[in-house]
Amino acid sequence: MSCLLLLLIAVVPVASGPGDQGPDPQAYLVDALRQTDPNRLEVVLAALSATGDKELAAPLGALARGGDLQVKQLALRALVRVLGKDAAPVMLERLKGDLSVQVRRQALGHLVALDAISTDDLTEAMDTDDERIRCLAACALAQQGQVAQTAHVLQELSRSADPATANLARIALLMLGHTDQLAPIGEVLCGTDTGELLKQLMLEQIERGKISSAAELVEQVARTESKPLRLRAYMAYAAISPRASAMIREAIGKSQDLVFRTQLLAILADCDDSQAHLEAIAAHDDALGLMARFELARTDGGQNAAQAVAAAMKLGHPIVVDGILRRARQDLDTHREAAGFYTEALLDYIRSVEPNAPRPETEHHLAATAAGILADLDTSAAMAGLKEILSRRYSTITRVVTAGLLQSQNRAVCSLIRPFLASPYEQPATNAALVLGYFADPAAAAKLRAILNRSTSRDPGLGVLASWYLLKIDGDPQDAADALARQIR
């Protein structure tokens, strides 16, 4: 599950009376998925896709094949969130057969982003009559090195009246060695009249294609544009230039914005030749120096890394804490066995947040994220620390940790949170039911039924989750999902 679920449980409605039987879970989900209001449907699909349950491919696929344009587009996005590359068959089907050109464009975009489409299918797409589909397919083929197939198509598209089509085609030609495209690309990429979205798309394509011949243009953007665009430019520059580390360090030194400097430091740390630059920044006795010392230590792990992360977390600055939590999640996903050094610092941070806050603040959201990371880390020290925190007198920290466990995919959290089903406090009891429901634990059924009973169509997120989890508890989730798909076709 994802942080989205923290938003879904932020406000828990008042419980309904004991005699209210409430809706049938299957019927509730069918009505929710037939929602005609796109904003509410987006909430429904976001809630379901946040679970990551692959059985949901059946009803999401049904929505992607029927309904109006917005329904199809929302369903395609949800399918990608749930299935990743496994969504490719539905995307390819929509690319080849949907009547809406917007849906076909979106499907091809997902396929290219997932790297889940063959050369033959890209070639077929390049022969369609929609310029944007032709351009996306030709650019993807160019990135594969298919020069003979694409050069003439890209030349034609570079003369398009559509700025996005023309400029992405020019960048693809530059990737194929057509340096005569540098001048027209530069006029647009560095032009004051060009929209920021188009510049973002161009920088992303330069980074993805590792087009080193565009380095001077990217450097110009990195030095002159808005901070979001400059950050995107520095990311692209790090992928294409051997000078990136020195340039990023220079930018860090010139900026007074801690958020921007921290973001730049993360880009710098991922550069191959960052060691000397990080050491120079680490010599400073400030927040960024702490972050640099952390970046230097985390690659080796062990006690030095534990001390470095503890020192940075102790500072308590939300920007620093957020940066460390992002790295912790990254390290957990890539090198789980070496990520144990985060444990004590994250536990100490959770214990340090305000225990009697009337409403969650930034530090509480960060502490919830830390709890989810610790649960997924699943070491004896991490689980024991969470258990100890949850055993304390009820406070805002209790709510924070139980909410954080909603983010975990570790079944071991069930034993930590099960006692809260009987809590007199509504939010941790709701959190417990949602965590246990995710794992189809029958102990959650009564509480999930109570959540469903009090849900409303105006705010369907909790009701959708409760309904889906009740169906998982009551039987085979794939059978339930298939039945949903049949009913919403």
The fraction of residues in strands falls at: under 5%
Mean pLDDT, rounded to whole units? 92
Summarize the main sheet: none
Multimerization state: single chain
| Fraction of residues in H or I helices | 55-70%
Structural class: mainly alpha
Whole-number radius of gyration? 25 Å
Low-confidence stretches: 1-19
Distance between the termini: 27 Å
What's the helix-strand series?
Answer: HHHHHHHHHHHHHHHHHHHHHHHHHHHHHH
Number of strands: 0
How many helices in DSSP terms? 30
Overall geometric form? flat
Description:
This protein has 489 residues and is mostly helical. It has 30 helices and no strands. The protein has helices at 4-8, 25-33, 38-50, 57-65, 69-83, 88-97, 101-113, 119-126, 131-143, 147-157, 163-175, 182-189, 196-209, 215-224, 227-240, 244-254, 258-269, 275-282, 287-298, 302-315, 318-334, 343-352, 362-377, 380-390, 396-404, 413-417, 426-438, 445-454, 461-474, 477-488. The longest helix is centred in the middle third of the chain and has 17 residues, at 318-334. The radius of gyration is 25 Å and the shape is flat. Mean pLDDT is 92; it is low at 1-19.
Highlighted features:
mainly alpha, 30 helices, disordered N terminus
Q: What is the gist of this entry?
A:
With 489 residues, the chain is mainly alpha-helical. The protein contains 30 helices and no strands. It is flat and about 70 Å long.
